[in-house]
Amino acid sequence: MVVSAHSKHVVKGTSHRDVIVIQNPGHVILARAGNDIICGSAGRDVIEGGAGKDRVFAGAGADTVSGGPGDDSVSGGTGNDTISGDAGNDTISGDAGNDTISGDAGSDTIDGGDGADHLNGGDGNDVENGGAGSDT
How much is the pTM? Predict the structure, then answer.
């Protein structure tokens, strides 16, 4: 599913594996269950992966991302992102920007990337790497 609308929309996935690509900024993506692939835009998006083993690429902009329950892979992209892995063994990369990243429950791997990031692994045996910048 490719969304290219210029006005803000709420995009809802299915309970199956979805591929959602956002071309213009400002959308809310609710992927729901399934092992989804989600690509955000160059602007401010809200992305919720839902249950499943999701791969999320937030893109540029100050995004708010929740991987949802499951073993997710989340990349924040450039911008000051807020990222939550939720339950599961997640791999999270903040990339460039001053990001706030929380792993929640599970054994997570978190890389803040460039910027002054705030990292919180949550419950579980987590690996945290602040990357370049003044991180906490």
Answer: 0.92
